[in-house]
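pls design
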């Protein structure tokens, strides 16, 4: 048993909240660890002193109160909240792994959102698409079969797109001659972009 866990269990034991199986494990650790056994003895003495003081008919003096406070603080675990959190993580491994994965993915995508300014053009049929600098043009009278995705640029749609048009961190310009068979959307917020990437990743994994 880890000594930090033993310290937490000492308090639970003295409060009467420690399960029987954990009590046996704690006692076994105390027999093998002199430092924890000394701390436990100190805790027992402190609790006994506190109980006696509360039952005493005479009020506690300022000096006695200060001494008692110092004694209590000296035996309290400094990271009990942290230990409780670790215990929760240990009892809920699947949720913990999912949460860590989510935040790692979110941090990674947000970093890419701020740093990656390169033009990216994706689609099943790009033979009629014209790229001029950061502008992606679908000329009038031409047709793009399938979806068209543009990152960090401007989509100037003058012809037909037989699918969806998605512009990420850019602009979408539609001419009067433009026709989009699917949906058209512009993603210019990091969180929307994150969900788009997650959806795209899951879709790619399922195909």
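designed seq:
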């Amino acid at each position: 048993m880890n000594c930090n866990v033993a310290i937490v269990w000492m308090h639970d034991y003295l409060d009467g909240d420690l399960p029987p199986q954990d009590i046996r494990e704690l006692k076994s650790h105390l027999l093998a660890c002199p430092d924890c056994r000394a701390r436990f003895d100190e805790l027992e003495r402190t609790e006994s002193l506190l109980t006696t003081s509360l039952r005493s008919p005479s009020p506690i003096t300022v000096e006695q109160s200060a001494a008692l406070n110092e004694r209590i603080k000296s035996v309290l675990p400094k990271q009990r909240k942290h230990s409780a959190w670790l215990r929760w993580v240990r009892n809920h491994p699947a949720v913990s792994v999912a949460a860590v994965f989510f935040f790692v993915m979110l941090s990674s995508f947000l970093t890419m959102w701020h740093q990656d300014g390169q033009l990216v053009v994706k689609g099943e049929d790009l033979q009629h698409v014209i790229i001029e600098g950061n502008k992606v043009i679908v000329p009038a009278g031409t047709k793009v079969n399938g979806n068209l995705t543009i990152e960090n640029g401007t989509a100037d749609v003058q012809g037909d797109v037989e699918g969806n048009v998605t512009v990420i961190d850019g602009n979408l310009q539609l001419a009067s001659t433009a026709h989009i068979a699917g949906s058209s959307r512009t993603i210019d917020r990091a969180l929307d972009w994150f969900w788009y990437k997650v959806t795209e990743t899951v879709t790619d994994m399922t195909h």
